[in-house]
Amino acid sequence: MRTWRRAPLAAAAGVALLVAGTACTAEDEPDRPDDSPRPLPTAFEGELPPGVGDEPLRRLHGPGAEGPSVLDDEMGVRISSVGDAFLISSNSEERHVLLDAEGGETLWQGERHIQRFGADSDGSPVLVVEGRDGGTEVIGDDGESVWRGSGGRDTFVGGSVVRRPAGWSADEPYGDYTVSAPGEGELWEFAFEAPPEDGGGEGADEGGTGSGNAEDDAEDETSAAPEPDPDRYGVPVASRDGVLLLDDGAGLLQARGITEDDAGELLWSIAGDDPALAGGTDVQRPRPQVVGGYEIPAEPGGAGGTEESSDADSPDAPSPSDGRDSPSPTGSGSADGGGGTGEAPTRTAVLVRWTAPEEPSVLSLHDLHTGELLWSLSEPGANPSSDAFAPPPLPGALYEPQTSTVLLPQATGETPLIAVDLAAGAIRWEFEDEFEQSISPALAMGGYVYGDAGGGDGAGTQVVLDAMDKDVVAEGLGAYVEAVTEEGYSIVVSDRQRFVFPPAEGPGAEHTAPTG
After folding, report:
1. Phi/psi at 175 (nearest 5 deg)?
2. How far apart are the first and last CA of the chain?
3. Residue 432: how many other CB atoms lie within 10 Å
4. What is the DSSP letter of 389?
5. In angstroms, rounded to a whole number, what is the distance separating the alpha carbons of residues 263 and 243?
6. What is the pLDDT of residue 8?
7. What does the pLDDT read at residue 271?
8. What are phi and psi of 299, to 5 degrees?
9. How much is the pLDDT for 235?
10. How far is CA 469 from CA 110, 261, 329, 362, 414, in A?
C-alpha cells in the first residue's frame, strides 16, 4: 500500500498545550494554550530525493535566509525554472522575481503578466511578458531584456521577430509578413497567399453534397484539400539557428533560411501525408505542431536511424537505448568533433507532432538544417492541437536529457502519457495501471522523472521514477523537488523550509531543456 504525504509549507508548526503543575480550584479558569510555533529548520534533515546534490547552498525562509520577500505571499507562490534561473511568482498578485540559481542574486523582477515561456535564437529559454503600453518584452534567463515590441502585430518566435498582417487570426492568417532579428534590421519579407477557392483538388464535389458512400466521401475530402505548395509560404511557428519553420495551415511544414546568405531560401519541406511518415490517415492531411528543438548526436545513426532507415515501425528500426552513457545533448558539440572539448559532436533536430482529429498522431524527428527524416512513429492517442500556429515548446512536454527521453501527454486513448526515446525513435514506456495514471510528471533531470501523485483524501505527494523504465526510485520521502534548472540546481521543500541544492554531478554538468 502506498501512503505518501507532501509536507506543507506553513508559518506555524502547531500549538503546544501547557499543563499547570498545581491543582486547579473551582474558581480558577483553565490555562489557555499559548501559541508556540516551532521554528523553521535551518538545516536539511532527512533523506534527499534522487538527483539532488549533497549539501544545500542556502535556505529561503526565516531569519537569516536568502529568499526574496515575495516568498512571504499570504497565498503562496509558484516556482519554476527559466534556463539557469528560478522564477518565483506570487499567487495573490502579478509579481515575479527571477533568481540566479547558483548565487541567489535577483536578476529581474516585474509586476507584469507572463504570457508564455519561449526560446531565443540559440535555443536558450526566455520569458515573454506583457510590455508597457500594450507591447511585449522578452526576458532572458540572465534577467536582461532580449527584445521589446510596442505593437500587437509583432510576435517573438524562437529568437525572430515576426510582424503579422493587420487583423491576423488563426482562421485568417493570410497577408504580408516581415521577419527581423531583435534590435536589428529586416531579414525577410513575404506574402502568405490563401489557397484557391476550389481547394486545389480535381476531385472536389461541385454540387457540395456527398455521394452517400462514406469511403468515397472521405476520398473527396482528401482531394478537396489544397495541395502542398511551398510557394504559398505559411505562418512562422518556430525559429532557431538561422532557420525559420512555416506552417501553411493545410498540412505542409517548410524550413527557410533567414541569414544574410539564404534569406527566404527554401531549405526543405514535408507534408503530413508523406509516405515516409509512420501511420497516416485517409480522411485528411495531418497538421504539423512543433514540439521543440533538441541537440542530438551528429554521428550517422546516432539519433536512432539512417537515411535508409527512417521509419521506427519498420523491422529494421533501431531498438530503444539501453543505457545512460549516450552523449548528453548539451549543444556544446560541433561538426568538427566537439571543438577539442572531448565531447561528442551534435546537431540540432526538430521534433514534430502531426495531428488529425480522432486519428492517432504521428511524431517525426528531422535535422533542422537539411530536413533529413531521422525517424517517425505513431502515438497511441489522438492529439489535435488546441492552439493553431502556437510556437514551441509544446505545453506539458518534458525532456530528460541524460537519457534523451521526451515525455508527451496524450489527449485521448488508454494512456495519459508516453515516454519517447529521442535517440532511438521508439516509445520507452507508457502509463498503464491506476497508480501510474494518477501521476502527473512535473520535472525531469539526472535520469529521473518527478511526478505529483494524487492521494485518495485529496492530498498528494511526489514520486520519483527512473526515466529509462518508469521504475519507482523513491516514494514517501519527507522532501520533494519543487523546481530544477538546466544545470541541475534544484529547490527542495522539507519541513516547511525551501533549500537550494547544487547539481548532483557538480556545477559543471549541464542539463538542456527542449526549445523551439
Report:
1. 140, -160
2. 42
3. 12
4. T
5. 9
6. 36
7. 96
8. -65, 150
9. 98
10. 41, 45, 20, 22, 19
The position carrying cell 523582477 is 109
Q: Which three cell numbers stand for residue 229?
A: 505548395
Residues ≥6 apart with Cβ < 8 Å to 228: 248, 250, 251, 252, 269, 271, 285
Provide the grid cell at 299: 554521428
**CA 99 – CA 82 distance, rounded (Å):** 9
CA-CA distance, 437 to 486, in Å (whole number)? 27
Distance from C-alpha of 223 to C-alpha of 481, rounded to nearest angstrom: 52
Longest CA pairwise span in the chain (Å): 102
Cα distance between residue 86 and residue 58, in whole Å: 14
Q: Residue for cell digits 559532436?
A: 345
What pLDDT shows up at residue 199? 53
* Regions of the chain where pLDDT drops below 50: 1-26, 200-223, 302-341, 456-459, 506-516
pLDDT in tens, 163-202: 999 999 999 999 999 999 998 889 999 999 998 876 544 3
pLDDT in tens, 466-499: 999 999 999 989 899 999 999 999 999 999 999 9
CA distances from 51 to 171, 443, 465, 489 (A): 45, 11, 11, 10
Statement: the pTM of the whole predicted model exceeds 0.85 = no
DSSP letter for each residue of 15-81: -BPP--SSPPPTTSPPPPPBP-PPPPPSS--SPPPTTB-SS-SEE-SSTT----GGGG-TT-EEEEE
pLDDT at 197: 78
Residue (of 384, 381, 378, 375) closest to 404 by Cα position: 375
d(Cα 59, Cα 44) in Å, to the nearest integer?
Answer: 9
d(CA 33, CA 501): 38
C-alpha 121: how far from chain center: 16
Assign 133 to helix, strand or coil. Answer: helix
* CA-only gyration radius of the chain, Å: 26
